[in-house]
Design brief:
This protein is mostly helical. The protein has eight helices and no strands.
C-alpha cells in the first residue's frame, strides 16, 4: 500500500516544479502524519488552466489579476498586454510561475500545519539558470 504522501504527490505533481518534487516528498515525509490532512486540503492553481486563461484573456491582464499581481494586471490591461509583447512572454512563462507559486504556498502550509521545518528551497539546478 502506498504512503499517503506518495498518493497525494501522484495526483498533485502537475502543480509543482518537476525539479522540486523530491524535495516536497522528503519535506512531507518528515511531517507528523496527523498534520498532513491540513496540507493535503490546500487548493492549488492549475498551470494548464492558467495557460488557457493567459491565451484567451491574458492581453487584458486577467492572468496577472488571478496570480495576485494587481498592479501589473492593470498595467497590462492599459497597454493591451504591452502591445502583445508582454502577453507572449507571459504565455511562455505562466506555467512555471504558477508551479513556483504553488510550491511556495505548499511550503507555507506545511509550516502552518505543524511541519516546523523552515522553508529552505532545494538547490538550484545550474542547467536551468
Amino acid at each position: 500500500m502506498m504512503h499517503p504522501v506518495d498518493q497525494w504527490l501522484s495526483v498533485n505533481n502537475k502543480f509543482f516544479p518537476a525539479e522540486k518534487i523530491h524535495y516536497i516528498r522528503d519535506h512531507l515525509m518528515r511531517m507528523p502524519e496527523q498534520s498532513l490532512g491540513g496540507v493535503f486540503a490546500q487548493q492549488f492553481k492549475d498551470p494548464t488552466t492558467m495557460l488557457i486563461i493567459s491565451f484567451f484573456v491574458g492581453e487584458f491582464g486577467v492572468d496577472r489579476f488571478m496570480l495576485g499581481d494587481i498592479g501589473l494586471g492593470i498595467l497590462k490591461l492599459l497597454t493591451f498586454g504591452g502591445c502583445l509583447v508582454w502577453w507572449i512572454i507571459d504565455m511562455v512563462m505562466i506555467q512555471n510561475r504558477v508551479r513556483e507559486m504553488n510550491f511556495n504556498a505548499l511550503m507555507q502550509a506545511t509550516q502552518m500545519y505543524g511541519g516546523g521545518y523552515p522553508h529552505q528551497p532545494p538547490p538550484q539546478n545550474p542547467h536551468n539558470m
